[in-house]
Amino acid sequence: MKTLEIIYWLRLALGITAAVICAVFGLATNTIVKQNPTYTTLLNGVSIALVIYLISYYIIKSKFSLQVEKPQKLLTMGIGIYFISWIVFWVLLYTIIATTIA
After folding, report:
1. 15/70 Cα distance (integer angstroms)
2. What is the pTM of this model?
């Protein structure tokens, strides 16, 4: 596989991982509610997702910076799949957890 393909699939996996971390954080802080979710739940999730993305950028930059033609591709490659996979899996996990809460 090419370097940019590796980064793409890595960002997909990190998006799913970020969703799991957001769901676990919601359980730990008791912010997952059955009805009327608050803005703090959304802000917590978005903040965690952004932090994980930025951390992944610096790790990917240190590992793959010499293997790509344009260094800015390290920031933009996989950004769409990261956030789409994160939101899809986070909503899925949030829904499953919220429906099991009594």
Report:
1. 23
2. 0.89
